[in-house]
Recover the amino acids of this structure.
């Protein structure tokens, strides 16, 4: 008897390895530094906005997410028709690959980068073309441009790069865009944009305004601290935004998620106070690690990368012993989120005691 079979690509989809929750250790507070989450509670007014939405759970959400589009449109000075919201920016990555790739079409991205990229690409039966990052964790944009062929439909640029940390500069992005054919979609994944502090930082919104083939994806999961509510948005020329909306899951972004995102957008001052505090902590951690002899790459997101090779799992185990759970990539390295001050202190202590 034969049974229903998924498409052959489904068996090839790599699993998504989510950051582990912290190990419970009696008498010790444990910290989760494995998913690049925000250690702060929701911004003021967000819980109240969500509570107001909870009472309406018997109704579908506003499918047009009109109030959220209006708020984003006002914030960025872009027409609502240039926006598309989804269940996290990971949802947008899936939708972009689905909307722009036929089976076998190529999607170029850096590696190692965000682990959902090969998953989204394989799920769409497209072909991933992985271009190794440079030794310092930066995108090799020259090699990525050279990897574009006439089968390439999409290029994913992750800036800052998860998990290695560095961001590309505007000059690098401009030079790259000048080399990429105009019919290739370039996705600038700015999930961590609010944490970037560097000269010549990419201005994704200005870049999309200058290019018909550029889409910027962002999220409320990181700086805004709404990871559990799943809201991301894309800013793109109207035809790309329309394609995204066409393939989107109807009613994907819940009523409470829309309410939380809108309320968060109204609290930019408090948002940046928190982001600045996390950036200060990031600087403290990176400085401390370098003083202790670690060669950590530039960290422009809310996380830091340890290039550990074969010692990766040993480092993760040492961190776990100290009550912090990190995200190991076996054989490569560990990504550690910037968290509570105490958690960051423990990371510095673990790293100081671990052989370089
Ligand atoms: C680079 C990058 N892009 C996108 C995402 C997706 O975030 P979300 O789906 O929560 O918006 C993440 C999450 O870790 C990420 O690291």
């Amino acid at each position: 008897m034969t049974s229903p079979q998924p498409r052959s690509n489904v068996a090839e989809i790599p699993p998504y390895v989510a950051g582990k929750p912290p190990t419970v250790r009696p008498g010790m507070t444990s910290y989760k530094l494995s998913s690049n989450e925000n250690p702060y509670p929701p911004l003021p007014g967000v819980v109240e906005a969500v509570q107001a939405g909870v009472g309406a759970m018997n109704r579908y959400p506003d499918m047009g997410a009109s109030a959220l589009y209006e708020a984003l449109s006002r914030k960025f000075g872009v027409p609502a028709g240039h926006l598309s919201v989804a269940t996290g920016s990971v949802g947008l990555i899936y939708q972009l690959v689905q909307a722009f790739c036929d089976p076998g079409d190529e999607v170029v991205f850096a590696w190692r980068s965000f682990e959902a990229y090969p998953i989204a690409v394989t799920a769409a039966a497209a072909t991933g073309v992985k271009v190794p990052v440079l030794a310092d964790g930066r995108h090799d944009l020259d090699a990525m441009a050279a990897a574009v062929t006439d089968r390439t439909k999409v290029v994913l640029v992750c800036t800052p790069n998860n998990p290695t940390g560095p961001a590309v500069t505007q000059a690098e992005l401009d030079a790259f865009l000048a080399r990429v054919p105009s019919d290739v979609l370039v996705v600038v994944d700015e999930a961590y944009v609010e944490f970037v502090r560097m000269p010549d930082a990419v201005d994704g919104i200005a870049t999309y305004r200058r290019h018909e083939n550029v889409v910027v994806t962002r999220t409320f999961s990181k700086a805004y601290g709404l990871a559990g509510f799943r809201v991301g948005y894309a800013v793109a020329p109207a035809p790309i935004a329309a394609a995204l909306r066409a393939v989107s899951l109807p009613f994907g972004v819940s009523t409470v998620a829309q309410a939380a995102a809108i309320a968060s957008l109204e609290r930019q001052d408090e948002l940046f106070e928190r982001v600045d505090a996390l950036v200060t902590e990031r600087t403290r951690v990176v400085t401390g690690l370098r003083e202790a002899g670690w060669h950590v790459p530039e960290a422009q997101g809310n996380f830091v990368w340890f290039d550990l090779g074969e010692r990766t799992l040993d480092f993760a185990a040492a961190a776990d012993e100290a009550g912090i759970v990190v995200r190991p990539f076996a054989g490569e390295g560990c990504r550690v989120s910037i968290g509570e001050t105490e958690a960051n202190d423990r990371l510095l202590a673990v790293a100081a005691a671990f052989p370089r």
Observations:
- The CA atoms of residues 81 and 284 lie 41 Å apart.
- The mean pLDDT is 97.
- The two ends are 58 Å apart (CA to CA).
